[in-house]
Specification:
With 161 residues, this protein is α+β, with helices and mostly antiparallel strands. It is built from five helices and five strands, in the order E-E-E-H-H-E-H-H-E-H. It has two domains: 52 residues, no CATH class; 81 residues, Winged helix-like DNA-binding domain superfamily/Winged helix DNA-binding domain (Arc Repressor Mutant, subunit A, Orthogonal Bundle). The chain is globular and about 45 Å long.
Amino acid sequence: MKQFTRYIPSPIGWLRLLSSEKALTSIKFVDTSSNWSEQQPTILGQTAKQLEAYFQGNLKSFNLQFEPEGTLFQQKIWKLVQGIEYGATASYLEIARQSGSEKNTRAVGLANGKNPIPIIIPCHRIIGSSGKLTGYAGGIERKRWLLNHERTNTKIPDQLF
């Protein structure tokens, strides 16, 4: 499968977008921009536009074709994570219970950490049962920024992180 690349700036650093001809396959946090693919499928432009609107506080729900690569269990967890509303959070334990077993909290954490499409599959919305921020593949400061950004742009009365 041919992969296409685009880089976009964001308030939390550069993002490298990867896609197939039809679907977004990955978002990575990177230090700098690099070479883009000469050919730019429509999905990359749509993703860049929606991420820009998200960062401006004007988009709360993404409408994109995406295909994250992962195991069946990872796919199940990522689907559950997509159900967490903008500005809200859920614990690893809550997601484990939704997946069928509260004993799966560690597996949920591992699946969440392997999410290839952060922000759009909002793994930053998963926190510890105590309400504390826990690990994030993009770094805890990015997670804090994303959560505070969403809470600032919604009516959810919770405190900022």
